[in-house]
Amino acid sequence: MNLLSPPPMISSFITLALFIGAFFSTSAQSNHVHEQVHKEKIIWLVEDKIENIDLLAKTSAETSTASYIENLVIQKLTQYNVKIERVTASRMNRVLHTNENSCVANRAETPERRQYSLFSDPQSFYLTHKLYRFDQTSALPKQLFNAEGEIKDLASVFKLLPEKTLGIAQDVSFGIFLDQQIQKIKPENIYYRGGNKRVVALSSMLYKSRVDFVLSLPVDITPNEAQKQLIEQYTIAGAPPYLIAHFNCSKSQFGQLVINDINKILAEIYQTKDYYQAHKKWFSDKQLVDLQLFLAENFSEKRYINSSK
Q: InterPro entries per the record (predicted)?
């Protein structure tokens, strides 16, 4: 008998143990591959513009509010196979119409969009659009303003000043209130700017007096020191104080599943300091406190506990 060889019975046990170990190891690897292969795919639409280059690298709250939160959510959707696809703003609507597994971030919720797509809880908040004017030699007529110094009605500006032009971004929503006011302005008074650099282009056109007014979010107006002295900003009476951006997915059973998962992630993110730091550049300390209270009352993590069981 070879002293280096185990007895026959022990040898049989070793062989059996090795077989069982190999079986479970192979089975586990097979299950792992199975999970990877069968992850449901989300076509994540990203507008083809400069701000969205290297979206998944935007891991600091010092970056733009929307990009930072969008990155956080995508990174946490590990149960899905998220495929980023760069498209134009107009194509986004077409894809959401025709695909059952598409999502896009940073969208205003409107009745028209609700007809063909689903919306998450708030992704981020913006101080609402203002009317901007630059380097003008005369003041606007007093009858345009209410007692609080707000523009009474956006359309009234161009009824009183019919030769003036308003520059606005194409293929975007300004929220229900302002969308309705824009519809009352004559088409000849509006210049629509499209393309992936439309926001920067509109600011440049305002500074060069190629348009008389621009309707824009304060976050998108970044004048240099000299321009700051010459730019005027007006609030539109009745406009909501904030424009709320949402995640927006296809109106399908799968889209609803993704929206539910996004809402659970958002409920967790709302509790973090970074969520508020991402808004800090554009909000006063009081506005940040108000934002915290609003989210705690309306979108707390507790509302998702039962749905996750």
A: Solute-binding_3/MltF_N
